[in-house]
Structure formats: C-alpha cells, structure tokens
Amino acid sequence: MKCDYDYLKSRALWLRKETLKLHSLAPETRIASSLSPIEILTALYYGKILKVDSANINNENRDRFISSKGHGSIAMYPLLADLGFFDKTELQKVCQPNALLGGIPDCNIPGFETTNGSLGLGLGTGCGIALALKKKKNDGFVFVLSGDGELFEGSVWEAIMFAGHNKINNLILIIDNNKISMLDYCKNIIDLEPLEEKFKNFKWYVKRIDGHNIKEVYDTLIDLKTSDISMPKVLIADTVKGKGVPILETDSLCHIKSLTKEQVDNLLAELN
C-alpha cells in the first residue's frame, strides 16, 4: 500500500499542537501521556490502517480500536472531530460540566468503543471482541493501545496468555512504551524488560520500533495487519513521554504535571 509519509508527518505535528491546545483549555487532562502515542494514532487513522467510517460508526464490519490507556487518549479528541465523528465545537467545551468530552474518554463519545478509566481492562475486552469476530467469520481487526505502566496489572497478563493460547490473530496490541509510569520510571517500579521475550514465550508475534518514526509505525502496522501468521501480534513502540515538550520529556513525574497557558502558547509558537 502506497503511503504519503510527509502527509502523515504533517498530521502528526497538527495533532500534537491541537492536543496542547486542549490541555490549555483543560489543564486537568494528562498531557504527557497523550503526547507519546501521537504518531501511532496518526498512522492508524490518517494512514487509514483502521477500517472505520464516521458516517457509519456501528458498521459490523469495522475494525475496533480500544485505547486502554484512557487517561492518555486526549489526542483522540481533535483527531475524531477532524474526521467527522462529532462536531468540532465540542472541543471548546472539554471537561466542562455536562460536556461530551471529559478528562477520561468513555463510550458515549462517537469513535470510542469502550470506557477504560481503570487500567488493565482494555486488552481483555479486546480479546473477547476479537474472538467473537473470528467465531462470526467477520474479518474485522481489533487494535488495543496500552501504556507500558499498564503492564503492571495482572489482568493484562491473563489476557496475553489467553490470546496466545487461542491464537487470536485478528488482535494487534500496541504498547506505548514511553518508560514512565505515574510516579517514576517503569524500570524503578517493576522492570518490564526483556519485554519481547516475554511476549514470545506467551506465543505472540512481536515487532519493536521507534514509535515516533511515522514510516516505521505505518509500515509495521500494515505488515502486522496483512500478515497471515496465526498468532496475536504486538507492536512495542518505544516512545518519549511528553514528546515535544522538553520540560516533560526528562521528568519522571511528568504524568501528573500540567502546563500553564503561557507554557503552551510558547510551545505552539515554537512548533509553528
């Protein structure tokens, strides 16, 4: 499949800026977690890897995307609005009382399949959906985006074992491996490495890439989706938490920090 990588790069930059603008409106949103998967989301949606249609969001033959890192999914708001899933005016109301868009997304928002405020649930849900699609002989895929800190949850490993045992090959897990959890670097809490070997031992097909290289992200996801390997597949995307914001990129507590309006304005000026 031919791809315009320059177009994807431009959309990723746009999405990074729009996510910062949302954070300026609602500083309670988790900005660092929402910046690390920008290229992943861009490749899936603007690269049209995901088979979805904003005009028919409940099409039974669609692909399903589950963002299991709910707190780190704010970047999906401008993306989904841009693609017509809901009106762009909703972006200006983010986190206001009775607004469609909250600090953590839920399935009332068109384009979101599930609510994942509690970590550790997305992959298990994805396993169930993917297995049901296979039983129905539906060729839809299920993509699950997880943070690396979420891998501390035991329920995730139950789902990993389940998927490997049942050879759920229409399931693709993407790990936003930004290496920082809520209160410290992951390696200081529970060291997840060697991560590739762990998945291989549970009968998964594994790829590892630079999660900010849009060409690598796009090409690898296309390969995983079109592969006829009879195993579940995982893409470990090495990313930087708070990507694009220098004061966050090297801060082990960036997950819980907010930016001031002045800081956001300065960043936007630099990005422009």
Task: Describe what you observe in this structure.
With 272 residues, the protein is α/β, with parallel strands linked by helices. Helices cover 39% and strands 11% of the residues. It has a 5-stranded parallel β-sheet with strand order 1-2-3-5-4, sandwiched between helices. Helix 1 (5-25) runs antiparallel to helix 11 and helix 5 runs parallel beside helix 6. It is globular, with a radius of gyration of 18 Å.
List keywords for this structure.
single chain; 272 residues; 5-stranded parallel beta sheet; 39% helix
SSE order: HHHEHHEHEHHEHEHH
Profile the largest sheet.
5 strands, parallel
Strand order of the biggest β-sheet: 1-2-3-5-4
**Fraction of residues in helix:** 25-40%
What is the number of helices? 11
Structural class: alpha/beta
Number of domains: 1
Radius of gyration: 18 Å
CATH class (first level) name = Alpha Beta
Terminal-residue CA separation = 31 Å
Number of E-type strands:
5
Shape: globular
- By CATH, the superfamily comes out as Thiamin diphosphate (ThDP)-binding fold, Pyr/PP domains
Write the CATH architecture name: 3-Layer(aba) Sandwich
- What fold name goes in the CATH topology slot? Rossmann fold
Mean pLDDT: 96
